[in-house]
Amino acid sequence: MSAKTDAAIGNHNLNNKILDKLQQGIMGYVKRYGGILIGFITMCIALSILSPVFLTASNILNVLRQISTNAILAFGMTFAIIICGIDLSVGSVLALSGTLSAGLITLSGIPTPIAVLIGLTLGTLIGLLNGVIIAKTGLPAFIVTLCTMLMARGAAYVYTDGMPVRTIEESFNFIGNGYLGPIPLPIIYMAAFFVFTTILLNKTKFGRHVYAVGGNVDAAKFSGIDIQKVQIGVFTLLGFSSAFAGIVLCARMYSGQPTVGQGFEMDAIAASVLGGTSMSGGIGTIGGTMIGALIIGVLNNGLNILNVSSFWQSIIKGAVILTAVYVDSVKKRKEIK
């Protein structure tokens, strides 16, 4: 048998292995997210029938750009829920970081890179503060982040005197309104955060510790995992994600607004839970959260296209979240039995 024949056989076997792994990955993905994918596809089909505008390329890009903020927040929120925590301050941190960066540029004449860095640093420090207080005092994350939510929102109002801060600096506005080829930059950011958080959760020691802490905190402690370090890391990540999302959103709106981000924490929680993250902790994936964010975004977009009242939109969204939590609790009881 010639060397060329051996090489051809080797390449053929390698290709078969790659195809087998790819097939297993696709089948595993479909098996894990089959139910939610069916729901998502069904909703898209229904909306495309009800409105011819829904499946146009411009509307699809618009939906992806709209969900980018929620998706970035939801990726971080997934980490918090997996460790049996929650962060109610993400919307307020988003507003404070965005308005601060915009204000530093417009009111103080600080260059865009420095202003953005300061905004990111502030949001990250607030997340770090949340984590340190939760880890060192044992106070519930719900209470701690509720307090920082109020303080961050109040600080945004104080800094701007309750008024929007308009930015005409092109380099700042480009952050939220620029394009990479035909793709809006917010979609690129969302994809980058998706890849980063997926690797962090699935391929690193920190990610394994996150699952361990959420699955059984006592067992994690006895196995030598630093619980406090994990908690601090998770909430610091959330602070950075919130600050980044806030800067991008303010750049998209050409202004820093202290009122922006109200209720964003609910959408982030909804996307995470809809994606299969268990409120009991220990279970959750970034891939599932991405699908959850898509469902929330498509739902909002579809209801707007159909001219459904914003009041009814809130009712529908609440019902969807409640249903998702109920299904999660039923699945959890079945697993225990």
UniProtKB/TrEMBL annotation:
<feature type="transmembrane region" description="Helical">
    <location>
        <begin position="232"/>
        <end position="254"/>
    </location>
</feature>
<dbReference type="GO" id="GO:0005886">
    <property type="term" value="C:plasma membrane"/>
</dbReference>
<dbReference type="GO" id="GO:0022857">
    <property type="term" value="F:transmembrane transporter activity"/>
</dbReference>
<keyword id="KW-1003">Cell membrane</keyword>
<keyword id="KW-0472">Membrane</keyword>
<feature type="transmembrane region" description="Helical">
    <location>
        <begin position="179"/>
        <end position="201"/>
    </location>
</feature>
<protein>
    <submittedName>
        <fullName>Ribose ABC transporter permease</fullName>
    </submittedName>
</protein>
<feature type="transmembrane region" description="Helical">
    <location>
        <begin position="114"/>
        <end position="134"/>
    </location>
</feature>
<dbReference type="Pfam" id="PF02653">
    <property type="entry name" value="BPD_transp_2"/>
</dbReference>
<keyword id="KW-1133">Transmembrane helix</keyword>
<feature type="transmembrane region" description="Helical">
    <location>
        <begin position="36"/>
        <end position="60"/>
    </location>
</feature>
<feature type="transmembrane region" description="Helical">
    <location>
        <begin position="141"/>
        <end position="159"/>
    </location>
</feature>
<dbReference type="InterPro" id="IPR001851">
    <property type="entry name" value="ABC_transp_permease"/>
</dbReference>
<feature type="transmembrane region" description="Helical">
    <location>
        <begin position="72"/>
        <end position="94"/>
    </location>
</feature>
<keyword id="KW-0812">Transmembrane</keyword>
<feature type="transmembrane region" description="Helical">
    <location>
        <begin position="310"/>
        <end position="327"/>
    </location>
</feature>
